[in-house]
Amino acid sequence: MPRKAAHLSVADDAAAPGGAAAVDRALSLLAAFRSGDDSLSLAELAERTRLYKSTVLRLLASLEHARLIARRADGRYALGPELARLHSIYAASFSLEAEVMPVLRELVASTRESAAFHVRQGDERLCLYRVDSPHLLRDHIRAGDLLPLAQGAGGRVLLAHDGARGRLYEQIRRDGVVALDGDRVPGLTGISAPVFGGDGALVGALTLTLPTSRARAEFASAVHAAAQRLTRRLGGS
Q1: N or C: which end of the chain has fewer CB atoms below 10 A?
Q2: What is the rounded distance in angstroms from the CA atom of residue 145 to the CA atom of residue 93?
Q3: Is CATH 3.30.450.40 correct for 84-233?
């Protein structure tokens, strides 16, 4: 029989309603780090979270696997590199929002179709910002959704400017915009163009999505022009 805790842990005191206790406890280990902490010992983590050392060790194994915690040579634990990657995405979203959203709104106002801004996240793409079409018939992707990288116009643009090979990707790099019908969802057209920063590096993909029945030839040039405007806003050329 598992032994019953003599006292509530920090996670038990502030458990998420309807959440998973193991996740709450794992997150309490991350929250145990305070300003000025370089690393913490197993005993310090157990003390700060009020968890048994055996429980802490099991949770640390999962956090290490996810690169959220790193175990050092002296046996102490430090925050892992995955947190730095997530922080960079989080921080960039604030600096980008003020520049991206006005361009998306302008594009939606001129086309009456849905516009989004995608960034690469590992082997997927993240819809970082989104402005919906006023039409009732539209796709229902939301900001924060993860989408396939190798399907859809936005993903193809991200791959093209990450060096992907093939006729389609060469065309995207040459034309600066791509329009694809049914590449991710049958009956849905995506039109996307790359956005660059001041250092010339790819920042993301600006994408217009719409039912194929409403596609118009001039939308490609509108997306391309909007991506160029956003590139200039971000200091690119």
Answers
A1: N
A2: 14
A3: yes
Residue type at position 25? R
Write down the residue that tokens 């430090």 correspond to.
78
Amino acid in the structure at residue 166: G
pLDDT tens track for 104-148? 999 999 999 999 999 999 899 999 999 999 999 999 999 999 999
- The 3-class secondary structure across the chain, one letter per residue, is CCCCCCCCCHHHHCCCCCCCHHHHHHHHHHHCCCCCCCCECHHHHHHHHCCCHHHHHHHHHHHHHCCCEEECCCCCEEECHHHHHHHHHHHHHHHHHHHHHHHHHHHHHHHCCEEEEEEEECCEEEEEEEECCCCCCCCCCCCCCEEECCCCHHHHHHHHCCCCCCHHHHHHHHHCCEEEECCCCCCEEEEEEEEECCCCCEEEEEEEEEEHHHCCCHHHHHHHHHHHHHHHHCCCC
pTM: 0.65
User: What is the pLDDT, as a whole number, of residue 1?
Assistant: 40
10-79: in CATH 2.170.150.20 = no
Distance, in Å, from the CA atom of 96 to the CA atom of 36, rounded to the nearest integer, reads 29
Which residue type is seen at 8? L
Q: Where are the domains of the chain?
A: 10-79, 84-233
